[in-house]
Amino acid sequence: MIDLHLIGIGTGNPDHLTAEAIRAMNGADLILLPRKGRAKSDLIDLRRAICAEVLTGPVWIVEFDLPVRDADAVYLDAVNDWHAAIAAAWATQIAMHLPDGGRLALLVWGDPSLYDSSLRIAGRLKDGGMDIRVRVVPGITSIQALTAAHAIPLSPLAGPVTVTTGRMLRTHGWPDGADTLVIMLDSGCAFEVLEPEGITIWWGAYLGMAQEALDQGPLAEAGPRIAAHRAELRARHGWIMDVYLMRREQIDGS
Known about the structure:
It is built from seven helices and ten strands. By secondary structure, the chain is an alpha/beta fold. It folds into two domains: 2-137, Tetrapyrrole methylase, N-terminal domain (Cobalt-precorrin-4 Transmethylase, domain 1, 3-Layer(aba) Sandwich), CATH 3.40.1010; 142-248, Tetrapyrrole methylase, C-terminal domain (Methyltransferase, Cobalt-precorrin-4 Transmethylase, Domain 2, 2-Layer Sandwich). The strands form two sheets. Strands 3-2-4-1-5 form a five-stranded parallel sheet, with helices on both faces. The chain has a five-stranded mixed sheet with strand order 6-7-10-8-9, with helices on both faces. The model has no long low-confidence stretch (mean pLDDT 93). Keywords: Cobalamin biosynthesis, Methyltransferase, S-adenosyl-L-methionine, Transferase. InterPro entries: 4pyrrol_Mease, 4pyrrol_Methylase_sf, 4pyrrole_Mease_sub1, 4pyrrole_Mease_sub2, CobF. One of its GO terms (biological process) is methylation.
């Protein structure tokens, strides 16, 4: 039996770990750390730093190379192939390092249940016949980190919030009936497809990290500023993780 803990680690700040997450890490027989390429080397450095800070005893830590998604293939086909390759990589590491079973931990950015594929990949191991039990340790999400950094409530008074992706916003525009949007997994600046009048944006990148960047304001003014800053940050670091919230004025102007 493999007892797999998917541990939400927030946005890279060790202070974001819950006591439950720290207990799960210290109770693991093996922690797997994925390497995502040279351009994202500071991501594994953050995971290493988290382990160094919170582990109080000997826990076996193994690093492995994470497969890369084919950016030129049809999106859903590429993602399915990518997940299969990651599942195979996990299975290889498990066979090498936990052949008789044990407690395995994977450190997941944010929360494993929100726009992360770890649960789907773990499901592939189950479907492949592996004797595996999955436990989720929730973590602070980038949405929480964003609203906290800007000191704003997530939703308007008695109003709903729509969480979607940059791809969906770029393809379909602002969803009907929505007044507040949270946009995740935006590879560009999908807000640029919108008519900016009446929209306010709150944006954050590298939330909780030393290089955290924030901006906010009317979309017509803040949008171009964010786009330029985002491009500069991506060029400087080789990667970027950002999220933003947009709110549209109600008909009554509220």
